[in-house]
Structure formats: structure tokens, C-alpha cells
Amino acid sequence: MAEIVIKNVAKSFGSFKALHSIDLTISDQEFMVLLGASGCGKTTLLRIVAGLETPTQGEVWIGGRRVDHLPPRERGIAMVFQNYAVFPHLTVFENIAFGLRMKKLPQAEIDGRVTRTAELMHIEQLLKRYSGQLSGGQRQRVAVARALAMEPDVILMDEPLSNLDALLRLEMRAELKGVLAASKTTTIYVTHDQVEAMSLADRISVMNQGRIVQAATPVEVYRNPAARFVGSFIGNPPMNFIPATREGEGRWNVAGITVEGPDAGRERLDFAIRPEDVDIAPGGLKATARVVEPLGAHTLVTTEVNGAMFRAVLDSDIRVSPGDELSLVPKPDRVRWFDPETTAAV
Ligand code: ATP
């Protein structure tokens, strides 16, 4: 069992607060992704769990053991970082065996583990090659194999696919997902790539400015953002927002149309809808098409609603030209509402 509990962890660098009181529990064998823009504190949080950084306050527990005062090697974790240190002067075999030799495991055990993990990562044919002769993608696999060979309870990964080209990234992503699910490890994975996050994660922790704004399943963060930030950060193109004023009990005026919503005891709310959740039909938002971008299966239409930008993703069979007047009806069950002051979901 390797549940990870992060309790009230904060980190300051001088007067700069990189992390504000983080509370997060990652279940045994869960794949947790830390997602956020550059500088939001993802790497710092991962490094605190790893023991490479000391928190200013708070506790880290792994498998029921408090570890925040232990050095990295005593935490039962393996790490794969962005600039994965694969030793070029060692063969692939020796790279994967490296940590096992440090642990002084018997040679037969080392042979077995190296072979198994190399097969898992499809690099068994490379075992005798020197790592300096490998491609970036192959080196990446070696780094992951080395981590897996340790059979750790916990694997921490920081942008492990960032040095790969797009196609290889896609391939490795699928492989990693399969391998980690089979290996029963608890994983924390840092990325700023939301597609990678959505595809890999059991849960995503969306971070912003040193805080976790929402920790939930990929579908949940996409469909039910806990705050406006999540709606605009997740999804490409992002969610649309329109200021709404109260018309009456549970009815809101959104750019001239009436939309049913919560009776939040307020006069103003922000209406929100994803670009793919509108239909062209009478009685909708009056939108003027400005830019039309065919994307294959869909067409992205950037429009103007009430003088503000509003994006719609429409079926590519629908013909739209710049200058067209459209009527966009939001799908009622996909409409979300946010408090304009706190930005939290209502
Ligand atoms: P990226 O995706 O760019 O790696 P990140 O979300 O992982 O970003 P962190 O590396 O955790 O962000 O950094 C969070 C903030 O803390 C940043 O503003 C960074 O400049 C700052 N920071 C990180 N390490 C230090 C340090 N050793 N000294 C001072 N400031 C630091």
C-alpha cells in the first residue's frame, strides 16, 4: 500500500510563496497528474514528495509513514525527470541495472528484472548498446525502465515525455499508461500538457499560482470546472464566458436571451459554455462570425457576441463564412455558472 498524503504543505523561496498550504491525498495505485501553467508550483510539489526540496511547513506521508524528514533514497520512490540522467558510457543493461546494483541485489535477480522491464518498454534488443548511441525516445524508455526495475511503490515523473517529438510522445503516452497500470505503482506525473493529463490521469490536480484549484477525474474537471480558471485552462479552445444578469427566479439574461440557471441570491453571475456545446437553432445567442477555421471533423468559428469573443465548434457540414449572423443555442445541460467575484462554480 502506497497512499501518498500531502498535509498542509507550503514552500517559500525567500519572500516568494511558491506553494500555499497544499492538501492532497493520492490513493494506492492511483495515477495523479499535476497540471498547470509554467511556474504554478508543480515541480516544487513533486520535489517535496521526492525529498529533493524541504517544505517550509507541512507533512508528507507515503504508505502510512511520515517521510518529510527522510532523504530521497529512504522514501521508497523512483523518479523520472525531464532531463533524464541516462549514463552515456554505460550500456542500456547497466543503466537499468544501476539502482539494483546499488541495492546489492543478487545477479540473477538483477538479470531477471532488467530483462522483464526492458521487454515491457520494448527495448530488449538494445540492452548491449551504449546509451550514448540511442535516440531521445530510446533513452527515455531506458529512464522509465530503470525506474520500473526498482519495483518502487511510488513513481514520480516530471514531464518525462517533453523531449520527444509529437508522434513518439503519443506512442509513449499509451505505453506508459499500460505499463504503469500493470505495475501497480502509485504515480505522480507533472505536465503542462492538458491532452497528456487527460489521457493518462485517474485524477488531475489543476494548479494555479501555488494552489490546487481542483482535484478530480479528467471528465469532471472538463465538464464541471470548480472555478473559472479551470474552465479556461482545460479545453482547447477554452470555455466561453458571458456576464449574466438576473431576470427572475432561476432565470438569467445572457446577451439578450433567457437561460435557466441557479437562484444564487445574486444579481450577477457568469454564464459559461464549452465551444462544442452550442447548436445552430432559432432563438439563440446572436453571434457574428469573424474567423472560420476548418479542423477536419469540426469547424472552429470565432464569433462576436455582444461585442465579446465567443468560440463555437460546429460540425464541418455546417457552412459558415466570415460576416454571417448565427443563432447559437447553448445545450441546457452543459451550461455552467460562476460567481463573478470569487470565480468559484455556483
Ligand atoms: P514549469 O512547468 O515551468 O517547470 P512549475 O509549475 O513546475 O513550472 P516550479 O518549478 O514548481 O513551477 O516553480 C514554482 C515557482 O517557484 C516559480 O515561480 C519558480 O520561479 C519558483 N522557484 C522554483 N524553485 C526556486 C528556487 N530554488 N529559488 C527561487 N524560486 C524558485
Automatic annotation (TrEMBL):
<dbReference type="GO" id="GO:0016887">
    <property type="term" value="F:ATP hydrolysis activity"/>
</dbReference>
<dbReference type="InterPro" id="IPR003593">
    <property type="entry name" value="AAA+_ATPase"/>
</dbReference>
<dbReference type="InterPro" id="IPR027417">
    <property type="entry name" value="P-loop_NTPase"/>
</dbReference>
<comment type="similarity">
    <text>Belongs to the ABC transporter superfamily.</text>
</comment>
<dbReference type="InterPro" id="IPR012340">
    <property type="entry name" value="NA-bd_OB-fold"/>
</dbReference>
<dbReference type="Pfam" id="PF08402">
    <property type="entry name" value="TOBE_2"/>
</dbReference>
<feature type="domain" description="ABC transporter">
    <location>
        <begin position="4"/>
        <end position="234"/>
    </location>
</feature>
<dbReference type="GO" id="GO:0055052">
    <property type="term" value="C:ATP-binding cassette (ABC) transporter complex, substrate-binding subunit-containing"/>
</dbReference>
<keyword id="KW-1003">Cell membrane</keyword>
<dbReference type="InterPro" id="IPR008995">
    <property type="entry name" value="Mo/tungstate-bd_C_term_dom"/>
</dbReference>
<dbReference type="InterPro" id="IPR047641">
    <property type="entry name" value="ABC_transpr_MalK/UgpC-like"/>
</dbReference>
<keyword id="KW-0067">ATP-binding</keyword>
<keyword id="KW-0547">Nucleotide-binding</keyword>
<dbReference type="InterPro" id="IPR013611">
    <property type="entry name" value="Transp-assoc_OB_typ2"/>
</dbReference>
<keyword id="KW-0813">Transport</keyword>
<protein>
    <submittedName>
        <fullName>Sugar ABC transporter ATP-binding protein</fullName>
    </submittedName>
</protein>
<keyword id="KW-1278">Translocase</keyword>
<dbReference type="Pfam" id="PF00005">
    <property type="entry name" value="ABC_tran"/>
</dbReference>
<dbReference type="InterPro" id="IPR017871">
    <property type="entry name" value="ABC_transporter-like_CS"/>
</dbReference>
<dbReference type="InterPro" id="IPR015855">
    <property type="entry name" value="ABC_transpr_MalK-like"/>
</dbReference>
<keyword id="KW-0472">Membrane</keyword>
<dbReference type="GO" id="GO:0140359">
    <property type="term" value="F:ABC-type transporter activity"/>
</dbReference>
<dbReference type="InterPro" id="IPR003439">
    <property type="entry name" value="ABC_transporter-like_ATP-bd"/>
</dbReference>
<dbReference type="GO" id="GO:0008643">
    <property type="term" value="P:carbohydrate transport"/>
</dbReference>
<dbReference type="GO" id="GO:0005524">
    <property type="term" value="F:ATP binding"/>
</dbReference>
